[in-house]
Design brief:
CHAD domain; alpha+beta; 14 helices; Hypothetical Protein Pfu-838710-001; single chain; 8-stranded antiparallel barrel; 507 residues
């Protein structure tokens, strides 16, 4: 069973941390009332990666470590500079299944193999306040790194590591750093021990760690479209572990990235060959649908729960809250299991490989080399024209199923136009940025209407279940009526909102 710890730390190197130097005196750090010597721990860690170092390239580390008070498997996922989530699992001979899943979007079908062995003598001090509470752990680490295979280089160094206590104030690290700098130390150039080990052992073995080539500034239409696509591909891969961990908003964000990619394929069909992108777009649509099972459930549950919470007691009849909670939990559990199975499945991993190949070697058409101010602007205008037609169709329909459908289609096209404008913004500037804002506003308005349509369908379902169980369906009818009113309010607001958007659109 894996557990997670948020790790906030900084590493230091320099003249005072070389050759087995003593730990700097930190007694003068503001807030520190005492320093507790915790002794020396002998740590032995083996780091795993694919032979082509996919985890290291993404600043992820996976290790099996013995010694110290946290022996086991550790997977570290970057959150921000100096902040990582460390996910732990008990010691075993092979990579734990839970951790292997969290790196699957990077590893896919490649094998995880031992890459580097690090043995450290860790001299630990605890900085405590006047109540004895831990403020930070400071360690002097004397490290020996041995590359396993691939040249079998070795390296050795000493570094100082400062890790903030759980729930500590990150500003405290600045105070410690001020003292360390006075002692002649500086921030380590390497982001982790593994990064340093790979660089150092690579040099010793006659190799130099590859550095990513600097990205060029987008110049033509193809450059702008590809920059946007690469960002969405990166988002999908990076969000995969968050979705598996069920982190807030992760499913929604991953779904948005898949939709952005698919929309870009369709909007910029003159830039990228649709004979290549359409099959991939179909797979993205499938993935978005799988991600949407749980997400749509969350949105509906939140909406109905909030609506129920606003009702006065006189309008509550029967175990409505219990039935809604039971309905939501049953569906969420099933959708969650299904989603993890999707992420572990061959179809999803094949899609990731196809996306990686596409952004690496894109199927560019002749228009890709054209002036972005012309090629991209034309594509955005075409999408906006489709939105305009659909909104006008919706406004021409009387209230009812046909209008509901037309408004839903307009919402989908508004979303696509928004994404096309996002990709265009670096090239077109303010006009595209303004269109993004307008389409987001329209999408929100029409989305509220569609949510009402879905809420009414769910309320009919819940009312039928309640009736079958011999419960009152009165409250479901009240909520249904209120949803009708919300939808009617959106329909009444749409003409003025659309007129304003048309007047402001300048792309």
């Amino acid at each position: 069973m894996a557990d997670t710890k948020r790790e906030i730390e900084r590493k230091y190197e320099g003249p005072a941390a070389e050759g087995g130097a003593e730990m700097p005196d930190l007694s003068g750090v503001p807030g520190v009332a005492g320093i507790v010597d915790k002794g020396v721990a002998e740590l032995d860690a083996t780091y795993y990666d694919t032979p082509d170092q996919r985890l290291a390239a993404a600043s992820l580390t996976l290790r099996r470590r013995t010694g110290g008070d946290d022996a086991g498997w550790h997977l570290k996922l970057p959150v921000s500079e100096g902040v990582r989530d460390e996910i732990r699992a008990p010691l075993s001979d092979t990579v734990p299944r839970a951790l292997a899943g969290l790196v699957r979007s990077r590893v896919r079908d490649a094998e995880l193999v031992p890459l580097v062995r690090l043995r450290s003598a860790r001299d630990v001090r605890h900085l405590v306040d006047d109540s004895g509470a831990l403020l930070a752990e400071v360690s002097l680490d004397r490290v020996r790194a041995d590359r396993i295979g691939a040249g079998e280089g070795t390296a050795a160094w000493t570094e100082i590591e400062v890790e903030l206590a759980d729930d500590g104030d990150p500003a405290f690290l600045d105070k410690v750093e001020k003292k360390l700098r006075k002692a002649g130390l500086r921030r380590s150039a390497a982001s982790s021990k593994l990064a340093k080990a790979l660089g150092e052992t690579g040099k010793r073995a006659g190799k130099r760690a590859d550095k990513p080539a600097p990205e060029k500034e987008p110049a033509d239409a193809g450059d702008h479209v590809l920059a946007y696509l690469r960002a969405q591909y990166d988002a999908i891969v990076e969000l995969d572990p968050a979705v598996r961990r069920d982190l807030p908003d992760s499913v929604h964000s991953m779904r948005v990235a898949t939709r952005r990619m698919r929309s870009t394929f369709r909007s910029y069909g003159k830039v990228l060959d649709r004979a290549v992108t359409d099959p991939i777009g179909d797979e993205l649509k499938w993935l978005a649908g799988e991600l949407g099972v749980g997400r749509d459930q969350e949105v509906l549950t939140e909406r109905l729960t909030e609506s129920l919470g606003r009702l006065p007691r006189t309008l509550l009849s029967g175990p409505v809250r219990t039935r809604l909670r039971t309905w939501a939990n049953a569906r969420r559990g099933g959708s969650r299991r299904r989603l993890i199975a999707v992420l572990d499945g061959k179809r999803y991993l094949t899609l990731l490989t196809a996306l990686e190949a596409l952004v690496a070697d894109p199927p560019l058409l002749e228009a890709a080399g054209g002036d972005p101010a012309k090629v991209i602007a034309k594509a955005v205008r075409k999408d906006f024209g489709k939105v305009s037609d659909l909104v006008e169709q919706a406004l021409d329909q009387p209230p009812g199923t046909d209008r509901d459908h037309a408004m839903h289609e307009a919402r989908k096209k508004a979303k696509r136009t928004r994404y096309a404008a996002e990709a265009a913004a670096p090239a077109l500037g303010a006009p595209a940025a303004g269109l993004v804002k307008s389409m987001k506003s329209l999408q929100s308005l029409l989305g509220d209407h569609q949510d009402s349509v879905m809420a009414r369908e769910t309320l009919r379902e819940l009312a039928a279940l309640a009736h079958t169980a011999g419960e009152s369906s009165f409250t479901y009818g009240v909520l249904y009526g209120r949803e009708e009113q919300r939808a009617a309010a959106v329909e009444a607001a749409l003409p003025e909102a659309w007129e304003k958007i048309e007047a402001q659109t300048a792309v």
